[in-house]
Amino acid sequence: MSARTKFYLDPQDGKFKGVCAGIADYTGVEVLWVRLATAGLTVIAQQWWIIIAYFVIAWVADSKPNDLYDTPEDAKFWQGVRSNPKRSTTEVRSKLRDIDRRLADMELHYTSRNSRLAEEIDSLR
To answer: How many angstroms from the chain centroid is the CA of residue 97?
Structure first.
């Protein structure tokens, strides 16, 4: 398992131990909704085992390293990988195909017989 696809506590953005912030970071859901769901399930639905699970997760899970993501786009990408790896690989393949196509177009332009380009090059000599 990659370090970027592992679940981490997020104490920097968390209120208490960073469990809800870690779940939000892992799933890509807004942290407010995770906190409301946790509180709602605990109080309204009387699912008291959530409190025990919260402390167990806080005890077992590692804290998120500070240098885990380079940019916010990087964090968004890895959240997508965790939520749907197949879609993420398809997106990466699509981007690489697009880059390859653009490079092939540039190569074709410069290697083809282009009289205007040849004239410009000759005029620079």
So the answer is: 20
Euclidean distance between CA atoms 24 and 71, whole angstroms: 17
As averages over each run of 10 residues, the pLDDT of the chain (125 residues) reads 66 79 82 88 83 85 73 73 74 90 86 76 85
Q: CB-side exposure of 47: number of CA atoms within 13 Å?
A: 10
Q: Is this structure's pTM higher than 0.70?
A: no
